[in-house]
TrEMBL record:
Pfam families: Methyltransf_33. GO terms for molecular function: L-histidine N(alpha)-methyltransferase activity. It catalyses: L-histidine + 3 S-adenosyl-L-methionine = hercynine + 3 S-adenosyl-L-homocysteine + 3 H(+). It comes from Prauserella salsuginis. Its EC number is 2.1.1.44. Catalyzes the SAM-dependent triple methylation of the alpha-amino group of histidine to form hercynine, a step in the biosynthesis pathway of ergothioneine. NCBIfam families: egtD_ergothio (TIGR03438). InterPro entries: EgtD, EgtD_Actinobacteria, EgtD_Methyltrsf_superfamily, MeTrfase_dom, MeTrfase_EgtD-like, SAM-dependent_MTases_sf. S-adenosyl-L-methionine binds at G87, K93, D114, D142, F143. This is Histidine N-alpha-methyltransferase. Belongs to the methyltransferase superfamily. EgtD family. PANTHER family: ERGOTHIONEINE BIOSYNTHESIS PROTEIN 1.
Length: 322
């Protein structure tokens, strides 16, 4: 294939340095936490793909329903020449957008970005093979770090799908949206997927499935610590916990220590003590109200021109102009 290049903004060493910093900060805090990005090594990305097919995990299906229905409208509104996808993962749902933009005759390039080198490379190559006329420019990196260098011909459409925006705490979410706005020119576009507030039982089930795939995904962060920082965490020492925080309207995933224990993390120069029952927060996944999404987009300098949901009103997609 000669229509694909992969650019690495983050080497393995950079990742280890970033993880070391996050571990020093998060695991020495009185309420232990780690950023959700550390789930996604090769295995973590695979487990997430498995999650997307679980009966309890509705967001992927709900968003796909919207994208399949509305992709032609997205293409007509934007006339995008480049589709940039942040946190692309497998880019499976993105094909609806690629197909519509290709039919509209405007699309020349696809720029998928992801922290997981393996997931990104596999997805970029699969898309390049299936869309031989498309220039595919994969970027391995963190979407918070490398926005300044988004390649591609204007007008660009930046897609941030799946509800991943919910992984940011509110202040960082606002900063992130502003930084996306800052790299876009007036008249370029953001397509944003947001999971919606709904009854807690449905939400909790989506993050605590009967087969335990989400539990394994959650514990995978310990495997990443072990591999990158030489830690000795035993995943079997931790229970998977998913709770709905009604005040903040977000799901929290946590790992709960089953006994008093110490995790040695030589690569961060840290010994981390856990009391039995103590929690390590591994992810927040915020859920949204339609009006809040509109005003957060407006605060970042975007004008929302379309708001679509699936038939069951579980998931919302906003198309906004910079
Ligand atoms: C990939 C961030 C959208 O928050 O729903 C799935 C990750 N965590 N199950 C989400 C996830 C637990 C997912 N995002």
């Amino acid at each position: 294939m000669n229509n694909v290049i992969i650019e690495r903004h983050r080497s393995g060493d950079d990742l280890t340095t970033a993880l070391r910093q996050d571990v020093r900060e998060g695991l020495s805090a009185s309420q232990k936490w780690l950023p959700a990005t550390w789930f996604y090594d090769a295995r973590g990305s695979e487990l997430f793909e498995e999650i997307t097919a679980l009966p309890e995990y509705y967001p992927t299906r709900a968003e796909r329903e919207v994208l399949l229905r509305e992709a032609p409208a997205v293409a007509a509104a934007t006339g995008a020449r480049t589709l940039v996808e942040l946190g692309a993962g497998s880019s499976e749902k993105t094909r609806a957008l690629l197909d519509a933009l290709r039919s509209a005759g405007t699309l020349t390039g696809f720029v998928p970005q992801d922290v997981s080198a393996s997931a990104l490379t596999e997805a970029a190559e699969a898309i390049a093979a299936d869309y031989p006329d498309l220039a595919v420019h994969g970027v391995v990196g963190d979407f918070t770090a490398n926005l300044g260098e988004l390649p591609g011909t204007s007008p660009r459409l930046v897609a941030f799908l799946g509800g991943t925006i919910g992984n940011f705490p509110p202040a960082e979410r606002a900063a992130f949206l502003r930084s996306v706005r800052a790299v876009l020119k007036p008249g370029e576009w953001l397509l944003l997927g947001t999971d919606l507030v709904k009854d807690p039982a449905t939400l909790v089930a989506a993050y605590d499935d009967a087969r335990g795939v989400t539990a394994e995904f959650n514990r995978n962060v310990l495997t990443v610590l072990n591999a990158r920082l030489g830690a000795d965490a035993d995943p079997a020492d931790f229970d998977h916990v998913a709770v709905w925080d009604a005040e903040h309207e977000w799901i929290e995933m946590r790992l709960r220590a089953r006994r008093d224990l110490v995790v040695h993390v030589p690569g961060a120069g840290l010994d981390v003590e856990f009391r039995a029952g103590e929690h390590l927060r591994t992810e927040v996944s915020a859920k949204f109200r339609p009006e809040v999404v509109r005003s957060e987009l407006a605060d970042a300098g975007f004008t929302r021109e379309h708001w679509w949901t699936d038939e069951a009103n579980r998931f919302g997609v906003s198309l906004s102009r910079a």
